[in-house]
Amino acid sequence: MSYYEKEQARLLRLLAEYEAEEEDGGELLSSEESDADENVSEQDVQCDMDIEEEVEQSSDVQPEEEPDGHRNPSLFATKCVMGCKLGKLATSSTAGNAVKRDDPPPPAPTDPRLPLSAKQKYTMVASWKGISRAMEPTGVHMFLRLFEEHEELLSLFAKFKELRTRDEQINSLELQEHAGTVMNTLDEGIRTLDNVDAFNDYLHQVGASHRKIPGFKVEYFW
């Protein structure tokens, strides 16, 4: 058997082994890897087109040579096929790993003094990012809802306790200002969640300031 025939047989054997492994593993392809497989399929089609073009232009391309100087276009085409197949395998492996790397890491455990689980803390911080883009209108809506459900609490707010209708409240500059202050207080508290000592100190300061309000009760914080 000549040199190029041995080389061709070896490459074809590798190709057959690869295709057999691909068929055996095809049923195990997960749903997360399906998108990556579609991309690989497109690349495989492109490879096949490239091979056809290269074979058609084989008169301009220098094919493989045997040790005795004879050229073998068949061996050249076989290596092109092997290159595309192995390239597909490498791309598929890389794409699969990329999907797995995209999985978010589990949240770090919270300080045991914080009455929140890691998931609750993560959800709160993530939700607050959206709220913080419109804190004042969100704060006004919060107070409107508070007064709808607990009208008796309106008397605690000296600057706008006379505002009895929703329209009066929503257009009140005093209520808007107070809503902004409250939302900034919440924002500062959420920003210090990673430092429980600072968080607790800040809560004590806010609580102490509210004790000065006549008629205020601890249970009003909700």
TrEMBL record:
Limits of the Globin domain: 115-222
Keywords: Heme, Iron, Metal-binding, Oxygen transport, Transport
A Pfam family hit: Globin
Keyword Lipid metabolism among UniProt keywords: no
SUPFAM superfamilies: Globin-like
The organism's place on the tree of life at top rank: Eukaryota
Bias type Acidic residues, positions: 20-67
Region (Disordered), start-end ranges: 20-73, 93-115
GO molecular function list: heme binding; metal ion binding; oxygen binding; oxygen carrier activity
Family: Belongs to the globin family.
Protein name: Globin domain-containing protein
Biological source species: Aquatica leii
